[in-house]
Amino acid sequence: MKEQTKKGLLFQSEDFQIVMHEDSDPEKFLKSVFIEEKSSFTLLCMLSQDIHLEIQNRKTHFLFKRNQYILHYSPEETQTELWTENQEILKYIRIQISYQYIFNLINPESSNESAEIFEKMIKNYFIFLHQETPPHLTVEMHLILREILSYSKKGMLQKLFVEAKIIKLLILIFEQFNEKNISEKTPKIAFIIKKFVDENYHKNIKVEEIGKLIGINQNKIRKEFKSQYHITVTDYISELRMLKAKKLIIDKEIMIKEIAFECGYEYVQNFTRAFRKKFGLSPEKLRNG
């Protein structure tokens, strides 16, 4: 989508609102704020690099690469902020769809399949692709967005055109999320957890928070991880932290409390206790020989 023909509010009706946002300034911190209406679905398509998203009511934060998207359900009116750091452009498309339209479209009472899709939408299943990262826009999705941006007719024809394109986008999203067999996902759960822990063990994280962040039930996290790696998630986090602490402890210019913080411990005494349990002596004694 190199060329940009329209910007701002592109379409609005009782069921839909489509906004094209593009802001550029190489010397300014770029930020965009909008309100997700109560009981609404929002499809956000990120068209520039490293866009941060924060949902105020839920204290939820995501970081998106270019051409990633999320389909998000908001049960209540929510303020959402998007911003970039050290970037020259903030560019995205926002498509908001009413709850009632989605309900009527899918008709969850008509079949088990429809009920399952609707439940997944309500529970925000369509945020992470296979519980890993935000999904990427496909070429076909890009073409649909381009068609919406370039459509020039107004009135009933525009309404029918937009509705048809949004339905097509939803179909592509559902297909993208269901492209792998359920049996293929299960073995990946432990790997996903390990990858997340490997990248975040230095932060003050707990199993409960991991579950919320990657969208997997905490009991399933404990079970799948222990089954695959024969160690609990908590013990694995501790192992990684202690390995890092042992490497840092030899540098006498780094204070013990700084090492504790770097290894994900909020309190020095907790770090010292874990260190002594692992190595049999305090950080100070190991440092001083």
TrEMBL record:
<protein>
    <submittedName>
        <fullName>AraC-type DNA-binding protein</fullName>
    </submittedName>
</protein>
<dbReference type="InterPro" id="IPR018062">
    <property type="entry name" value="HTH_AraC-typ_CS"/>
</dbReference>
<dbReference type="InterPro" id="IPR009057">
    <property type="entry name" value="Homeodomain-like_sf"/>
</dbReference>
<dbReference type="GO" id="GO:0043565">
    <property type="term" value="F:sequence-specific DNA binding"/>
</dbReference>
<dbReference type="InterPro" id="IPR053142">
    <property type="entry name" value="PchR_regulatory_protein"/>
</dbReference>
<keyword id="KW-0804">Transcription</keyword>
<dbReference type="InterPro" id="IPR020449">
    <property type="entry name" value="Tscrpt_reg_AraC-type_HTH"/>
</dbReference>
<keyword id="KW-0238">DNA-binding</keyword>
<dbReference type="InterPro" id="IPR018060">
    <property type="entry name" value="HTH_AraC"/>
</dbReference>
<keyword id="KW-0805">Transcription regulation</keyword>
<feature type="domain" description="HTH araC/xylS-type">
    <location>
        <begin position="191"/>
        <end position="289"/>
    </location>
</feature>
<dbReference type="Pfam" id="PF12833">
    <property type="entry name" value="HTH_18"/>
</dbReference>
<dbReference type="GO" id="GO:0003700">
    <property type="term" value="F:DNA-binding transcription factor activity"/>
</dbReference>
